[in-house]
Amino acid sequence: MNKREELITKYATDMADKFGVKADLDLLKKVVVGLGPSIYNADSEIVSSSDPSEVERVKTNFLIKKLGLVEESRLDEVLVDVLNRYGKSNRNKYRAVIYYMLVKHFNKESVY
Questions:
Q1: DSSP string, 19-61
Q2: Contact 27/72 with Cβ under 8 angstroms?
Q3: Is 111 helix (H, G, I), strand (E, B) or coil?
Q4: What is the pLDDT of residue 42?
Q5: 85-108 burial: b if 16+ Cβ within 10 Å, else e
Q6: What digits encode the pLDDT tens for the residues 60-92?
């Protein structure tokens, strides 16, 4: 198993544990591939939900630019909901898991 496959397995397990969701592995792989080399860097692999600028970056760069959603307060609400469901005390909020959950929530699988 290569490093990317190990990470996909780790992310799928995390989704099952934290969200009770059985991941669509094909979609998860596409999300992971879309993140590129950032998943191999410990700092960029994680989303810091306590950093407002980091949360804003996820909204702007992923939800609006990548998924093509329109700027509205609903984006903030959904993003905060996903982060809260991941667990406020959980320091390891994997970017791939958050992006996957957002893609599923907004039914934007077609982007991938």
A1: H-----HHHHHHHHHHHGGGGGSHHHHB--TT-HHHHHHIIII
A2: no
A3: helix
A4: 86
A5: ebeeeeeebbbbbbbbbbbbebee
A6: 999 999 999 988 878 999 999 999 999 877 888
Question: What does pLDDT average to in each consecutive run of 10 residues of the chain (112 residues)?
Answer: 93 94 95 93 89 91 93 88 87 93 94 91
d(CA 40, CA 57): 19
Distance CA 62, CA 68 (A): 8
- CA 53, 59, 85, 20 dihedral sign is negative
**Residue found by looking up tokens 């692999």 in the block:** 45
For the domain spanning 3-111, the CATH number is 1.10.238.120
Q: In terms of C-beta density within 10 A (0-12 exposed, 13-18 middle, 19 or more buried), how is residue 23 classed?
A: buried
Reported residue count of the chain is 112
Residue 77, C-beta contacts closer than 8 angstroms, at least 6 positions apart: none
